[in-house]
Amino acid sequence: MTALRGYFHPKSASGGSSLIPSPPWLYSGDLLTVEYRTDPDRVRELLPAPLEPAEDDPGAVALIWADWQSCSTGGTELLDPVRSQYKEAFVVVRCSYQGRTYSRCVYIWVDKDFAIARGLHQGYPKKLGSIHQTRPHPYGPAPRIEAGARFGATLAAADRRLAQTVVTLREPAETNGFVNGHPMAHHRWLPSVEKGRGLALDELIESGAASFEGGRPWVGDAELELFDAPTEELSRLEIREPIAAYYRQVGVVWDGGRLLASGTSGAE
Amino acid sequence: MTALRGYFHPKSASGGSSLIPSPPWLYSGDLLTVEYRTDPDRVRELLPAPLEPAEDDPGAVALIWADWQSCSTGGTELLDPVRSQYKEAFVVVRCSYQGRTYSRCVYIWVDKDFAIARGLHQGYPKKLGSIHQTRPHPYGPAPRIEAGARFGATLAAADRRLAQTVVTLREPAETNGFVNGHPMAHHRWLPSVEKGRGLALDELIESGAASFEGGRPWVGDAELELFDAPTEELSRLEIREPIAAYYRQVGVVWDGGRLLASGTSGAE
Amino acid sequence: MTALRGYFHPKSASGGSSLIPSPPWLYSGDLLTVEYRTDPDRVRELLPAPLEPAEDDPGAVALIWADWQSCSTGGTELLDPVRSQYKEAFVVVRCSYQGRTYSRCVYIWVDKDFAIARGLHQGYPKKLGSIHQTRPHPYGPAPRIEAGARFGATLAAADRRLAQTVVTLREPAETNGFVNGHPMAHHRWLPSVEKGRGLALDELIESGAASFEGGRPWVGDAELELFDAPTEELSRLEIREPIAAYYRQVGVVWDGGRLLASGTSGAE
Amino acid sequence: MTALRGYFHPKSASGGSSLIPSPPWLYSGDLLTVEYRTDPDRVRELLPAPLEPAEDDPGAVALIWADWQSCSTGGTELLDPVRSQYKEAFVVVRCSYQGRTYSRCVYIWVDKDFAIARGLHQGYPKKLGSIHQTRPHPYGPAPRIEAGARFGATLAAADRRLAQTVVTLREPAETNGFVNGHPMAHHRWLPSVEKGRGLALDELIESGAASFEGGRPWVGDAELELFDAPTEELSRLEIREPIAAYYRQVGVVWDGGRLLASGTSGAE
Fold first, then answer.
1. pLDDT tens for each residue of A142-166
2. CATH code for position A68
3. Structure ipTM
4. Which chains touch C (3 or more CB pairs under 8 A)?
5. Quick check: A156 and C154 CB within 8 A?
6. One Pfam family name from the record (chains A, B, C, D) (predicted)?
7. φ, ψ for residue B115 (rounded to 5)?
8. Number of domains in chain C
9. Chain B: residue nearest A91 by CA?
10. Residue among B65, B69, B253 with most chain C CBs within 10 A, to mutate
């Protein structure tokens, strides 16, 4: 009898076709984070049971751009960079589960299929988008990482611009923000293939970095704009009050998560 | 307590952000099908338990290009065609389950995220690709649907060409081929987020069209080439003997499938 | 001494690398045309000397979407359709030169490099864009070409939507509109490579189809929206009064144009 | 009378639609250079009159990948990075004109329209391509710029891979190679719009950086592969002998060139 192999589809005799390799997954990347406060009700309405709003500052939102190079153990993908480089923009809020504070990604766009697949596994609700982010550079007109440096970032999907920001760095900082600083509490959902049968998969999982290194964060100020689109609700997280913006270069390893609960979300 | 809505992620209070709407899903499209025989062992090695090779002609393969416009009930997506148009190329073999013959898609590439999401639901092992297919046209140099007309089709992924064909139509036919003519027997797999725990979702499902209409198929001959790539195994389904090629315009409705078995695949 | 060959760059010993082959160029395509009136001053300001506004209806504008398959003699490109298929959206106004009425394309976006190169040759001021247009289909939810059928079309560039329309067909018509019905009067401009030396190429040329065939046009009504963008002025051609919308399938051959004047534009 | 403005098409009353702004153009970027020797006849056949092969080492070739951020004075484009970031891969050989050695780009692929437009101006024979290049990073699995670091780079066009390399750095170096180290001798060609009339523009121009800064180059070794494609002749510059590979981060300003000769190329 055939034993199919491969961490993800398509599975095959060798496993060599799998859209993604098995973890650990290693990442090098630049994070541009814009934190602001929205109406806490707009955050609450995105938190399914049994999650509850964070007790402290429940309307805090982080909109994060990331410019990644990622690979599996051995790093083969780095040498064929169409298979390692991708960009993403994602929205993080905080929530509470059994008295502990978690971060939670509520919207995310990426530009590669392997990133979509990893997101399915990790509970990130990924769509395809077009994401751009100024990169620091030691020569020429691009910014250095220094006071006064300005970084732009944009997000579009389905040929519509959804968000754009310009961040001006001010000074080195102790943190890279507080909204995306907790373990992630995500759902992995898939509807039953049979109509009217609800969800075939309904897991609440916890996920975070297996290891992490990073440079000194820089803090600054952001101009941020969100735009309406017929199939997106990002602009519903309206900007009430800016908090701060951050720039940081990081190295991350992801190596699996933990199942917190199953069948509890009450989601349709 | 919040009841999150949306057929797929990202779920929200309104459901308006879901990457795909709830079925039924309606499709208009052109199918270019190339059937050939490969080594039956190469098909067998892609069939996990409890599937078995088809009794008759077990090495038959169909490589199908499709140029689609799709929508939900109401057809909104058709009027914002970046949200309805997509192309795909996919490989179908046949198998047997409990004495019945099924078709099964073993590899598939699409060029839109909503198509990836529908594939996850239906058990199609989708990756992103770049797919092109000559379209018939009543004027100018593009082919009419008639004897001698030639249609080209190509598939690439990760900046490498994986397959290309040129099909020459010969005459109207009774069928559009036999390999993709059965209900689909697909797996829906997702690994556990916890390392070493195997699969969190391991379903064998049956899926097919809820309704179908189509024009007269045309049969012809194909030149077909498959190319190696480091992360693909399409070329392992080597071409031993051409069968025939087909062209057909169709309208299809998909409206859910049926769970056949759970936890039986033995896949890693 | 080497004689380099190739109709366009890059030239080589064989000519086989040329981005475009020598004319004639053959096209099969679907045209979706939306005609409206804007402030005639907004048209006038786009007409360099020696062009003058059209005497009759000088504020008439056509915004046209086209879904093309194109090739050189022999049709090789049609069988490798990534090299033949492209889409475009373009804006046409009318003008007068030496007492004759011409059409003139003032803005145009395409999605392939070979289309950019042909535009340079023909005086179309092409940029890259993302263009989508509903296609008619005989089966399923996509529209037939018939009364009440609706076709959507969209244009984006640099991750911003620039225009969108929904056209509802009403009845067969005698014409496909009047704005794009004349020979084209275009400029071919290239600045001198030396700073402050003005234009190295400043030609006014006339161009049109060497041959043409087409189906019966359909006339209907359009909802049209134009959007602002920092590097575009399409929305400056504001919609004052709708005229009509048209749908037509055509076959066209282009085989060279005619030089009308040189060095007369006074453009910077 | 209207005076149209804009450095490039489309020209308008304000000049705000121009695909590219007037020079100077400023660049920050990373260069990955692979130098090798091919058959000198393969270089000679790409040099039109009055250019002659370089006296010394006439078969030397540089295949260069570049990852750029570019802007005009003021740097606006850097903050909307879809308008500043692009990648390119290009092939440089050397030649001699009036006793002086020049570099000359014979093939080049880029991934943005503004880069195509600048290339038209500067005589680079640009096509669209898909270009990827490993980026150095201070954290995680991506390489630092140090001994033993490995950088991959790939080029594809029309859904076919054309070239790929893996470069391993060895040590800091005095130069970034010698093939691309001279002023560029390029042609700016455009056929007459009238058939059979030859070239409307046939300029030999000289071009180079108005200013330059850069980090210490690193030298290393490359594995390089070139692939055939029906519309490309890159692989005709076959690899006879590797020379070396280089990595360097640079800042460049381009601010116009100089006309060397007109109407002398004898090209078709």
1. 999 999 999 999 999 999 999 999 9
2. 2.40.400.10
3. 0.96
4. A, B, D
5. no
6. ADC
7. -70, -35
8. 1
9. B10
10. B69
